[in-house]
Amino acid sequence: MTIAQASRQYGLSADTLRYYERIGLIPPVPRNKSGIRDYDQESCQWIELMKCMRSAGVQIEALVEYVELFRQGDATLEARKALLMEQRDLLLARMEEIQQSLDRLNYKIQLYEDGKMTREAMGRQKEESQNP
C-alpha cells in the first residue's frame, strides 16, 4: 500500500508516517523498485501499534526504545516486556487520576441536579460544616 493509502487507512498524515519512520518509531518501510514506500502487513501492524500507544499517551522515546529493542532480536525479550510493563503502570496511574477527576465532576454535577449549588444552599453547607 502506498503512503497515501496508509495515511487514509490509519488517519495519520503522510508527514507523520514519514516522521515515525525517520525517528525509528516504526521500522524502515520496504520500498518498491522506484524507491516509493510500499507498506506491507508488518509495516501496517507497526503503525497500528504506535497509533494505539500514542493515543494512550505513551511517550515517543519509550516507543523508539521498544522498536530498537525489537530489532535487536530475542535477546531483548525481557527488556521489551519490562518496558511495556512500565508503560502499563504509568497508564494505570493516569487512568486513576482521570477517574478521580471524573468522580469529582460527577459529584459537582449531582450537587447542581439536587439544587445544592445555589448561593443560599452553599451558605447553609458552610454554616453546617462550621457548627456540627
Number of strands: 0
Oligomer: single chain
Number of helices: 6
Give the DSSP E fraction (strand runs of 2 or more residues): under 5%
Mean pLDDT: 90
C-alpha termini separation: 70 Å
Radius of gyration: 24 Å
**Shape type:** elongated
Poorly predicted ranges (pLDDT <50, ≥5 residues)?
A: none
Order of helices and strands: HHHHHH
* Percent range of helical residues: over 70%
Largest sheet: none
Q: What structural category characterises the helix and strand content?
A: mainly alpha
Q: Any descriptors?
A:
132 residues; mainly alpha; 6 helices; 0% strand; elongated
Task: Summarize the structure in words.
The chain has 132 residues and is an all-alpha fold. Helix content is 72%, strand content 0%. The chain has 6 helices and no strands. It has helices spanning 3-10, 14-23, 41-55, 60-72, 77-113, 119-130. The mean pLDDT is 90.
Quick overview:
The protein contains 6 helices and no strands. The protein has helices spanning 3-10, 14-23, 41-55, 60-72, 77-113, 119-130. α4 runs antiparallel to α5.
